[in-house]
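REQUEST
  id: r-88c1
  op: predict_structure
  target: DUF8042 domain-containing protein
  payload:
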Amino acid sequence: MEWLNTVEEGLMSVSSFYREGHTDSGDRLLAQMMEGFVPFDASNMTMKYIFGREEKHEEELNRFQEVVEKASAIEELNEEGERFRFLTKEIIPAFQRWKLIVWQVAGK
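RESPONSE
  id: r-88c1
  status: 200
  body:
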């Protein structure tokens, strides 16, 4: 849970970097955070066991994994504001939904 809170704070930092025009710093921080989710993807048997018991949890895990994969190619977004929109419209909402699922499963 602490790690998820740290990621949430990091996403807010990425948002600030993008708003302030520090695109490279935002890209690097986002890439580092998204790399942290690689071991927890939908192909991980432990994740399947924990989150695969309920269909909605497994679906959300898969959706979040798709966003993580898209985020790894954030540098391909070139249009002004495109990175910020992707962060705020896709990454952060997907992360928030995933965090809620983790809290539910953890009984928090």
